[in-house]
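Bit of a strange request maybe. I'm writing a small parser for structure token strings and I need a real example to test against, not something I typed by hand. Could someone generate the tokens for this chain?
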Amino acid sequence: MDHPGSEAGSERLNRYLSRCGVGSRRRADEIIAAGRVTLNGVRVEKLATVVDPAKDKVELDGRPLEPTTPETIWILLYKPSGTLTTRRDVRGRTTIFDKLPPTFQRLIPVGRLDQDTEGVILLTSDGDGANRLMHPRYEIERVYEATVVGVPAPSALAKLKHGIDLGDPTPARAEAAVERFHPRGAVVRLILREGRKREVKRMMTALGHPVVHLQRVSFAGLTTGGMEPGGWRRLTESEISRLFP
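Reply from user aminoacidic:
Good idea to test on real output. This should exercise your parser:
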């Protein structure tokens, strides 16, 4: 059985307890702190304890526990340019699910990237977790590198920090700076904390510097380091924990 966490199949004890039906992960932490949980016969004292469900015996008040809900899956996909962020396309175009294993076909994308945008996208079986990461209230950091026509002046990029009107209910904001140059212009690094449709492209067009290529290099601090377009990996237990501190 696959489990979120390391390749060895480990997961945080509070997550395991939650899957066993004791309540939320916060409630599980309270139960652990009360000294009611044993791992392989030893009372658990550390909240950050990790278990391997395939090998370890977990008991609550002396009663063995077994998961009552399926595992929660989190993967990071390096979305290639030219793919759609959808499960299937009526026009037969390539989607991000086409080369994923069958067990991942029902995962939920955490937000969307345009067809011609590449980079980090998370997929999960945790609908509540996905909704939380997409909600503007939590201000999840998204980092993009936009290859644009021309070189934006610092004063133009400074406008993004204060917010510009794109016709949305609220101004669009970003921290932006020129990262490097190319023959036709520059690569601009932008940090956003909410996800709006085509926001980076609309921002840069509004400044007079249309985007010719866009890559999301980080989402919630997670990157595609060492991966090739189309590649994917499971999130580690520590990465999942950092998504929901």
